[in-house]
Write a structure and sequence with these properties.
Elements: H1 18-21, E1 34-38, E2 43-46, H2 47-52, H3 55-64, H4 70-86, H5 96-99, H6 115-142, H7 151-158, H8 166-173, H9 180-184, H10 189-195, H11 198-212, H12 227-233, E3 242-252, E4 268-278, E5 283-289, H13 293-305, E6 313-321, E7 324-330, E8 335-345, E9 349-362, E10 375-377, E11 384-388
Antiparallel strand pairs: 1-2, 3-4, 3-11, 4-5, 5-6, 6-7, 7-8, 8-9, 9-10, 9-11
């Protein structure tokens, strides 16, 4: 890096001594990997403090040292830190063109871009504006504490995960269900900043709607150009973190004859459950069984994780178009099809209720009205309700 690494005083963080932290030797280990160090002034900047800096300051520092984005600047500093840890240093710092070479054979862009390209540029501009608003709101929340909190307090409140890059944290969070992002935002203001930005909402919308929707499109303009509004208002099914369950019970009339052994006054009740366990990739695990949910969830987990076959469960596919949900699952003797509606309920949460409109089956898998083997069943009065389960 050319010149003095940092000249702004706002980006300088002094190293807390043992007396300042509290005399614990373990706390000093958190400063073992500084981003910058200047022994003459007695300060060093570490990755956690770097993430605490406002986005505008990080952007200005990256541009000052010849990098267009924060990601390019962080990648260079990671390489620089690796050389420092190994005891060898490069003779000259890497140039931006070496790390990100431009394609010389790149085709020329047309003078008049297509309509789709204009729409994508408008969406990106709206996304960037919303992200800047989120960053400014986060910076205002931390303005009173960013100058006084030391590294130990930051790690104590947010955890040691804050020592990782933002991209690494987002990759880790991508394995969690979408509904868990709301819980992560309640941990600390730092975690809220990582899980409640417009960029994160965009990733979540791409995870959900590009797989679930029938046409594989987002239509951001219908929701005011904000991904958060889309995530809150656009109908979807809740994948992972629980299962949709429909309980059906029917009291049968007892036919008494000379072979009946049921005592007088007894009630003969038939109970069964239907289960819908959705995946983000467009698959759904459908099960029909008399087993109660607390036992059936274990069996569904074995089917998903251990790839074990279950006589009551089969894999199918689903599609979402507006608030209409279509499920098709193939069993050994026939193919079943469900037409449902996605609804919101205060008891089951947003998109936690599925109302069945039509239930059909066909041995040939042909669900056209003129099909000879099409069978239509009576629809139960109850609805599928989402039941949370941490194991799922």
């Amino acid at each position: 890096m050319n010149g003095d690494p940092i000249s702004e005083t706002s980006a300088v963080a002094k190293v807390p001594t043992t007396d300042q932290v509290g005399g614990d030797a373990d706390d000093t280990e958190l400063d073992s990997s500084p981003l910058w160090r200047k022994e003459d002034d007695g300060w060093e900047l570490t990755w956690p403090i770097w993430h605490m800096l406002p986005r505008d300051e990080r952007k200005s520092l990256a541009i000052k040292h010849g990098y267009n984005t924060i990601g390019e600047f962080e990648e260079y500093m990671s390489l620089q830190q690796a050389f420092d840890d190994s005891g060898t240093k490069p003779s000259q710092p890497y140039e931006n063109e070496l790390l990100y070479p431009q394609n010389q054979n790149q085709t020329k862009i047309a003078s008049k871009p297509s309509l789709k390209k204009k729409e994508s540029e408008n969406d990106n501009a709206e996304d960037e504006a919303s992200a800047i608003d989120e960053e400014r709101e986060y910076n205002r929340q931390l303005s009173s504490t960013s100058g006084t909190e030391d590294l130990t307090e930051i790690v104590k409140v947010g955890g040691k995960l804050l020592m990782l890059h933002d991209e690494l944290l987002h990759n880790v969070f991508s394995y969690l269900p979408v509904d868990n992002y709301g819980t992560l935002a309640l941990v600390s203001p730092h975690w809220k900043h990582l899980t409640r930005t417009e960029t994160v909402y965009r990733r979540l919308c791409e995870r959900l709607y590009l797989q679930q929707s029938k046409r594989k499109q987002l239509h951001l303009s219908r929701f005011g150009g904000k991904y958060r509004t889309m995530l809150e208002q656009r109908p979807r099914v809740r994948a992972a973190g629980g299962c949709y369950v429909l309980k059906y019970s029917h009291v049968k009339k007892i036919q008494r004859d000379m072979w009946t052994e049921i005592p007088p006054g007894a009630i003969l009740e038939s109970v069964y459950y239907r289960y819908l366990y959705f995946q983000e990739d467009g698959r759904v695990l459908y099960a029909l069984s008399s087993t109660a949910p607390h036992e059936m969830f274990r069996r569904l987990l074995k089917v998903c994780l251990k790839k074990k076959e279950d006589t009551a469960a089969v894999w199918g596919t689903f599609e979402v178009q507006k608030d209409a949900l279509t499920i098709v699952a193939r069993q050994d003797w026939h193919t079943v099809k469900f037409d449902l509606t996605i609804e919101s309920d205060k008891m089951s949460g947003r998109f936690g209720v599925l109302t069945m409109l039509k239930h059909q089956s066909s041995p040939s898998g042909n669900f056209d009205e003129w099909s000879d083997d099409l069978v239509e069943y009576d629809v139960p009065e109850g609805s599928f309700r989402f039941i949370r389960n941490k194991r799922l």
